[in-house]
Amino acid sequence: MPKEIIEMSKRELKRLELIHKVMDKRIKQKVAAQRISLSARHLRRLIKKVSAYGDTAIVHGNRGRLSNRKYSDEFRNKTIGIIKKNITISDLLLLQRNWRN
Q1: In sequence order, which residues have a C-beta less than 8 Å from that of residue 19 and are 6 or more positions away?
Q2: What per-residue confidence (pLDDT) applies to 101?
Q3: Cβ count near 45 (within 10 Å)
Q4: Residues 18, 45 contacting (CB under 8 angstroms)
Q5: What is the mean pLDDT of each run of 10 residues along the chain (101 residues)?
Q6: What residues contact 18, with CB distance under 8 A and at least 6 apart?
Q7: Crossing angle, helix 40-53 and helix 10-23, to 10 degrees?
């Protein structure tokens, strides 16, 4: 079975390392939770997720996806077009002056 590559931050790697140590009973849950600034309860939840779903459970589920709040490119381009069409140099100077105050 080919191995998949998981992109993780240093923080997530540290969490994963400590979770594996707890799962192997090399350190206690309370100690691991203190090292990564989590409650013991939250650490137990993470351990449960890692044992059920593997190392990918540490990474947030929305990583790599577009935001659901993002405007479509069509809407964005239409809005910028309207602004460019209706704004004048004097409007820009007035905005600039008011922005600084």
Answers
A1: 32, 43, 46, 47, 50, 58
A2: 60
A3: 12
A4: no
A5: 77 94 95 94 95 89 82 90 82 78 60
A6: 27, 32, 35, 36
A7: 90
Within 10 Å of residue 12's Cβ, how many Cβ atoms? 16
Query: What number of helices (H) and strands (E) belong to the chain?
Result: 5, 0
What is residue 2's predicted lDDT score, i.e. its pLDDT? 65
- Collapsing DSSP states into helix, strand and coil, what is residue 31? helix
Q: Which long-range contacts (CB under 8 A, 24 or more apart) does 39-48 make?
A: 43/19, 46/15, 46/19, 47/19, 47/22, 47/23
